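Thread: Newbie trying to understand structure tokens

Hi all, I'm a second-year student working on a class project, and my supervisor (Dr. K.) asked me to get a predicted structure for one chain before our next meeting. I've only ever worked with sequences, so writing a 3D structure as a token string is new to me. If someone could post the tokens and maybe explain what I'm looking at, I'd be very grateful. Here's the chain:
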Amino acid sequence: MGEARDRIDAAAAQRLAWLRTEHRDLDDAIEALRASPMPDQLQIARLKKRKLRLRDEIAALEDQLIPDIIA
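---
Reply by user tm_fold:
Sure, no problem. This is what the structure looks like when written as tokens:
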């Protein structure tokens, strides 16, 4: 059972790394759009919404990978 859990944790850690990279990429894309002479506010809003969804998924995965320690 421990080996299966380790594989699940490894897959979750890999997914977490991908989500963090995607989150940073969205930051860069938002900043690039803002810096343009005529920023597309609708596109910026869509990217921000996607970034928030990624943040929520990142938080959920972190909670799954890092167990709560009750002192």
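A couple of things are worth pointing out once you decode it. The chain has two helices and no strands. The mean pLDDT is 90. Feel free to ask follow-ups in this thread.
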